UniProtKB/TrEMBL annotation:
Residues 7-239 form the NAD-dependent epimerase/dehydratase domain. One of its GO terms (molecular function) is NADP binding. The keyword Ribosomal protein does not apply. SUPFAM superfamilies: NAD(P)-binding Rossmann-fold domains (SSF51735). This is ADP-glyceromanno-heptose 6-epimerase. It comes from the Bacteria. Keywords: Carbohydrate metabolism, Isomerase, NADP. GO terms for biological process: carbohydrate metabolic process. It comes from Parafilimonas terrae. InterPro entries: Epimerase_deHydtase, Heptose_epim, NAD(P)-bd_dom_sf. The keyword Nucleotide-binding does not apply.
């Protein structure tokens, strides 16, 4: 058994996971077990320069844990199938529900604090608001298979009598930032906008399908991935030092609490590239129009009550850092 406590991070080669590993490395933590499918060469640059103790294939993780019995002090479970266009319920059940249940049960059996990734997509069309109240979770109606899978695990988690000593399910809103280059159509609107400008010096946004919004005026709560990593670090420190009370266990929104428009994003990307905005608009495809929310904005009171008071990066600052220090320097 390892003498030095280890931190397990699943999904470590992915967008958010690799940024969390980077942040933990920057705080001096190298005693990390990275779990993911490391055979995906497209994501290799996300993890190959990170500092870690063990690299474990996702499919062999539970077997590896049973055989090696590592001294884990904390689990950060970010591994999931995050493609919102994924239609296979078999894949989503395996990756987003059963895998999460296995990690949860391991954390419970060995009394290990744990945080895991949920999604704001679980709120559906937003008609019921975006309040992270565990007691109203059964009222939510997700709009696609991916969101339903994340919602199903959230419901399962809050119902468990046997649970990790301290835990939190993090409902991520619209995350953007470094290391998302491999996500294809699932990447953030910031990266999509950057690519459009690089290719054509124009950006095309959807026209509004509601009288409430101008074209491109639909609102989202955009969160810089570095803020997510900082929050998870805070939860890690709070939980391992037993400053987290069991009554705080539950679901938490991870958002700035201030929604901004797609048009704002486009203008800010143009500005970061030193270019004048050139925006056109196109009709919203019928296959997404029915499930396209006009507004998505986190309520953040619960997180603040838990003790987290760090400010979130403004959209202006986040986009400028992302463009100038990452996208403009590396091939996408």
């Amino acid at each position: 058994m390892e003498k030095q406590p280890l931190i397990l991070i699943t999904g470590a080669a992915g967008f958010i996971g690799s940024c969390v590993v980077q942040f933990f490395n920057e705080q001096g933590r190298e005693n990390i077990v990275l779990a993911d499918k490391f055979t995906d060469l497209q994501k290799e640059r996300n993890w190959k320069d990170k500092k870690y103790k063990y690299l474990v294939d996702r499919e062999l993780l539970l077997e590896w844990l049973d055989e090696n019995k590592p001294n884990l002090e904390f689990i950060i479970h970010l591994g999931a199938r995050t493609n919102i266009r994924e239609k296979s319920n078999i894949v989503l059940q395996e990756m987003n529900v059963e895998y999460s249940e296995d990690v949860w049960n391991y954390a419970t059996a060995y009394n290990i604090p744990m945080v895991y990734a949920s999604s704001a997509a679980t709120y559906g069309n937003g008609e019921l608001g975006f309040t992270d109240d565990d007691n109203t979770i059964n009222d939510l109606q997700p709009l696609n298979e991916y969101a339903t899978s994340k919602h199903n695990f959230d419901k399962w988690a809050v119902q468990q009598l046997n649970a990790p000593p301290y835990w939190a399910g993090l409902k991520f809103f619209n995350i953007y930032g470094p290391n998302e280059y491999h996500k294809g159509e699932g990447c953030s609107i910031v990266l999509k906008t950057f690519k459009q400008i690089e290719e054509s010096n124009t950006v095309t946004l959807y026209k509004s399908n509601s009288d409430r919004f101008e074209d491109g005026g639909q609102l989202r709560d955009f969160v810089y991935v570095k803020d997510v990593a900082k929050l998870i670090w805070w939860m890690y420190e709070t939980m391992i030092h037993k400053q987290w009370q069991p009554e705080k266990n539950g679901l938490y929104n991870v958002g700035t609490g201030e929604a901004r428009s797609f048009k704002d994003v486009a203008i800010l990307v143009f500005k970061a590239l030193g270019k004048e905005p050139n925006i056109t608009y196109t009709e919203m495809p019928e296959d997404i129009a029915g499930g396209f929310r006009g507004v998505s904005e986190a309520t953040t009171i619960k997180l603040k009550h838990a003790g987290y008071n760090e400010p979130f990066t403004s959209l202006e600052e986040g986009i400028e850092d992302y463009i100038k220090n990452y996208l403009a320097k590396k091939p996408v």
